[in-house]
Amino acid sequence: MNPKTVSKILARKHADFMKHIDDPEVVEIFNKHSIITAGSIVSLLLNEKVNDYDYYLTDKTSCHKVAQYFVDKYNKSHPEGAGKKPGVGAVIKPTAIEEDGRIRIVIKSVGIASDQETKSAYEYFESRPLDEGEEYVDNVTMGRTVNEKIPEADDLPAGALEQIDDGKDPYRVIFMTSNAITLANSVQVVIRFYGPAEEIHKNYDFVHCTNYWIPDGKKLYLNQPALESILSRTLYYTGSLYPLCSVIRTRKFIKKGWHINAGQYLKMCFQISELNLKDINVLDDQLIGVDCAYFFQVIDYLKDKQNKDPEFKIELPYLVSIIDKIF
Fold first, then answer.
1. What is the pLDDT of residues 97-117, one digit of tens each?
2. Which domain does 305 fall in, by range?
3. Phi, psi at 237, each rounded to 5°
4. What is this structure's pTM?
């Protein structure tokens, strides 16, 4: 698909998304302080179906306001809360906080006594029960209906702007982690990173995902290394905060006919070697966003074991037995 058509599709998707945001300040933030980047542009250039339109915010204040907006929308539509805190019985609701220079979505217990309020009262949203993770997988992979036609884009790929027509809010929150907010109709707002495109892309793993589109001016920015990677369908690893995730992500690209040489795997393995994956928190952080329903269960097993035995440490034989059981 040619770049002009890609830009038109992104503009139409963005306009439709903005129609369903009921806070003018948040609309202004998306219009002036956001970018769309990553896989959607790759898919459109290759004339393939888009899985997600990934938004990033260009500054911390905008990122925090947008995160809190969707958290508030979720809380309003779920007055019963996200569940009950074990052993306390208090309703727990997600909120957006600033912590260590970044924005996170966490769950905070509501209504418990101050002497019971401890650091453990905060739980990341991705620690929700497994069945909710499975529901998320079902929601984001469910069949789409009602394909919107763009008259100017005769080469529009099937599904580029399809919408779920189920009578509900078309961009409702269907899942949240501390890193991102997944909305219906293939929109994801990533809050793990913020800043100008070049800063955001420093945290990306593969170069082909570094093209981007900005709503302010409706401009599509393409770069030569990314286009060369896309043209040859070759994965080129540039480094990531989540190298374990990157290794697992290569599976989906290989299934689509992409290629990767051994050197790229060596880069990822070297970065992984610097991680302490026997630390459950590190392992949990590395697995966020990867086959979530299954890895949630792995982490749940490990955390439950650690809660019952504070001296418990992850050892390979035990981890292997858990993974084989779940997968």
1. 888 888 888 875 443 333 333
2. 234-327
3. -85, 125
4. 0.76
